[in-house]
Amino acid sequence: MSRSASALRALTASFAALSLLTSVAVAQQQLAIKPGAKLGLGRVALPEEIKAWDTDVRPDGVGLPDGKGTPKLGDAIFQERCSTCHGEFGEGVGRYPVLAGGLGSLKADRPDKTVGSYWSDATTLFDYIKRAMPYGNARSLTDDEIYAVAAYILSMNDVIKDENFELNKNTLAKIKMPNAAGFYEDDRDTTEKHFWNKSPCMSNCRDEPKVIGRAISVDVTPEGKNGPAVD
User: Fold this and answer.
1) Cβ within 8 Å of residue 215, ≥6 positions away
2) Per-position b or e across 149-179, b if 16+ CB within 10 A of its CB
3) Which of 15-24, 44-53, 109-118, 186-195 has the highest mean pLDDT?
4) What's residue 145's pLDDT?
């Protein structure tokens, strides 16, 4: 298909969509339909359709599916599906993320924020891999394969010591990450609450700033037809 034909088709589709949205909006106004009311459009999603996308996993492990994997099995899958970007041992290739190492580096000028050195919850591994990995072919791994890859990544970070350790929804939820204590709950609703009832200053909030130097005095202002650009 030519670019012009493709562009025309896309433009036609956009106008059609806009027309539909406009029609719905007009109908709502004419019928005085309240927000959230049913319009008779579409259908209720089927349980299997919801399940296909309801893949979020909480830090405590709620949402993890059945399945299992070991670091040994994950090694083979990782080398085939993940090492192109992340390296054979999680060292990262080019500008792709480093997954292993960096333990104890978080206070350095250039900390290495890897799964082992920075992440607070091991369950995030399963959640993220299932949603987004492998790059360019997301959602192509089975749950067993994801458990295995997660186990291998944890083993590269010395979180799992045994290559035959079985990672599943029960064992993954119990793993404590090295930097788990480095995170804390957002407590601004209590620690900063005393600021909330104070009105912001709108006038005479501080003394008038005093000019202590001008650009012309340090010879950084370019000369123009009428002299310096600023005083």
Assistant:
1) 221, 228, 230
2) bbbbbbbbbebbeeeebbbbbebbbebebbb
3) 109-118
4) 98
pLDDT for 87: 97
Distant-in-sequence, close-in-space partners of 59: CB < 8 Å, separation ≥ 6: 120, 121, 123, 124
Report which DSSP code applies to 64.
P
The pTM score is: 0.66
Report which of 90, 77, 60, 73 is spatially closest to residue 166, judged by C-alpha positions: 73
Calpha distance 39→41 (Å, rounded): 5
Q: Counting beta carbons within 10 angstroms of the beta carbon of residue 105, is it exposed (0 to 12), middle (13 to 18) or buried (19 or more)?
A: middle
Confidence band for 222, pLDDT divided at 50, 70 and 90: low
- Burial tier of 102 (Cβ tally within 10 Å: 0-12, 13-18, 19+): buried
Give the pair of three-digit tokens for residue 171: 């064992």
Distance CA 158, CA 20 (A): 56
